[in-house]
Batch of 3 targets.
Target 1
Amino acid sequence: MRRVLMLLLVFVAPLAVLAAMVLADRTFGRPGRGFDYVLSFDVKPSGESGLPKIEGPMDASRPLVVIDAGHGGKDPGAGADEPKEKALTLALALALRDELLRQGGVRVALTRSDDRYLFLEERPAIARRLGADLFISIHADSTESDSGAMGATVYTLSAKGSNQTAERMAARENAVDEINGIKIKNQSDDVNAILVDLSQRETQAQSEQFASLLFREAREAMPFKETEPQSAAFAVLKSPDVPSVLFETGYINNPADVARLMSQAGRQSFAQTLSRAIKVFFARTATNRAT
């Protein structure tokens, strides 16, 4: 009798377990019965999310200019009173974009088109991810030691500032990602590796060429503080493969500079001047590549 019971258990027990599993599945596992434990999520396809819109000709062969309005959001930039640097740079960036689109021939993207905060490393990274042919970062200077300082300055990248003023400017702009001297976001390994790496000689040469063109075109339309382009270790100029310049358009604590930059005529002159320099730069670049 005991042997018969053991044989029954050997054959019946697995059937009982299987029946229990089927019953549980039908009771709890199917939608509409018991509890629905299957959750559905809408997953967006991967891609270049977060990148700004490229405007202009629908032709990828046309050169792309990325315009960077300095500061923004919680970082107002220079200026104890109104206007703040972030508002001034955005107004100038929008004016330049509109002029380039009006003239046609190039594509344009803005790192920011509204009052938003971007980390310093994000700005050149946007240009690189978009495959930009030129990166222009727009700023306005400020000084407490020289209330009479006025005029624009154009900068390219270097390991050491071309003068003490350039070093001071770079230190101030690069401190945007710091609070009380503490980094609020570490730079990527890629950016750290190219901190001031001038091994990309062609890119650096193109940056200097554009800076010279910009200085030549703009000095007839606006005052300049220096007699030639300057250089400093600005964080936003660290892209190794995109020609980049930083344009300090004037002093935000100088009434004459602010009046010039905030007026419609001043912004129009600024936009037209830079547009000419950009067009000449791309014409020369195309000629050099053809030869």
Note: Residues 30-48, 178-182, 191-199 have pLDDT under 50 and may be disordered.
Target 2
Amino acid sequence: MYYILFYKTVDNYIERRMPFREAHLAYATEAHKRGELIIAGALAQPTDYAVLIFKGDSPKPAEDFAKNDPYVLNGIIAEWKVRQWTVVIGEPKER
């Protein structure tokens, strides 16, 4: 099953994330290496949301990721939610 973690970012997200970006990327890289996080990135124009796609048996890895993400812990994410995603055509591919 797939789960999408939606992040609603704060105003001036691009600038405000800089002190925490390295820690966030390292944290996300570890989740990717474990096979939990499949693909992730911020939406553009405007950069008001980010989307992270997880694969697993439950939403717990995505929820745990959000609860411990340096961006969330440092107020860069205004709110987040996890939704199950039913893929009907294709499958996300890793680069």
Note: The chain has four helices and four strands.
Target 3
Amino acid sequence: MDNWKEGDCLLEKNSLDKIRANVENCVGQKVRLKANKGRKKTTIREGIIESAYPSIFVVKIDGGYNSIRRVSYSYSDILTETVEVTLCNEETKIQIS
């Protein structure tokens, strides 16, 4: 507890707010998701950011064979680098490190 500082929590909160703002600005755009599933397994999918909520955002993925999947991620997934979100029209990550 001695190493904890009052500003540490604010830094993380501001980072999550920046990530949330970046994702909200990209609603409706096509993105590439690289998700770490554990045990050296990663999946790469492309979809459209459908909506952004206070704690999560939803990506609509075309699964093929006329099926559509919706996958939700939290903003902390981007912060902890469990998920990397890249815009498809340009190679910029929505990742705040």
Note: DSSP finds two helices and five strands in the chain.
